[in-house]
TrEMBL record:
UniProt xrefs under PANTHER family: HYPOXANTHINE PHOSPHORIBOSYLTRANSFERASE, HYPOXANTHINE-GUANINE PHOSPHORIBOSYLTRANSFERASE
Species assigned in the record: Pseudonocardia alaniniphila
Residue ranges constituting the Phosphoribosyltransferase domain according to the UniProt record: 10-151
Classification lineage: Bacteria, Bacillati, Actinomycetota, Actinomycetes, Pseudonocardiales
Assigned keywords, A-Z: Glycosyltransferase, Transferase
Gene Ontology MF terms in the entry: glycosyltransferase activity
Iron among keywords: no
Protein's name according to its UniProt entry: Phosphoribosyltransferase
Organism superkingdom: Bacteria
């Protein structure tokens, strides 16, 4: 990985989400459900939900990254795990901010396979090393991405009683 970073502003994210939705619509794909991969995928799923007029949004909580280029050995789905009965027979669009290694997307996509009519993936960014080739991608990069929602430190750290300085 190079030190150069991809910078995404809130304004650029708005453009990216709209263009991603236009690509999905132009492809004729009409998801019944958008399944967000939390946390970064929440922003993408919400934006796509509005743009594609899909109100049925679900969340898969997955832990994998612990820092810049630091991750657990494998991604794990955290409770509450989506109920496959709620997804059954649906066209599902899995939404995330980035397909980096692809491991998180693969975990969620494989969770859906066999329970849904169709599952496709939409991301803002896809990296060349991703094991999952997403059907819908706004931009491709090999850089670390600074997303507007994750570049600043938390206001409060879990387990800490104090508010952090700005």
């Amino acid at each position: 990985m190079t030190d150069a970073r991809e910078e995404l502003s809130w304004e650029q994210f708005g453009t990216a989400a709209r263009e991603l939705a236009e690509r999905i619509a132009a492809d004729g794909y009409e998801p019944d459900i958008i399944l967000s991969i939390a946390r970064g995928g929440l922003f993408v799923a919400g934006s796509l939900g509005y743009a594609l007029d899909v109100k049925n949004l679900h969340v898969a909580n997955v832990e994998f990254y612990t820092g810049v280029n630091e991750r657990l050995p494998v991604p794990i789905m955290l409770p509450p795990v989506p109920n496959v009965v709620d997804l059954s027979g649906s066209r599902v669009l899995v939404a995330d901010d980035v397909a980096d290694t692809g491991a998180t997307l693969k975990l969620v996509r494989d969770f859906c396979v066999g329970h849904v009519a169709d599952v496709r993936c939409a991301v803002v960014y896809e990296k060349p090393q991703s094991s999952v080739q997403c059907e819908y991608v706004w931009r491709r990069t090999n850089r670390w991405i600074n997303f507007p929602w994750s570049t600043q430190p938390p206001v409060v750290r879990r387990g800490a009683a104090q508010v952090l300085d700005s």
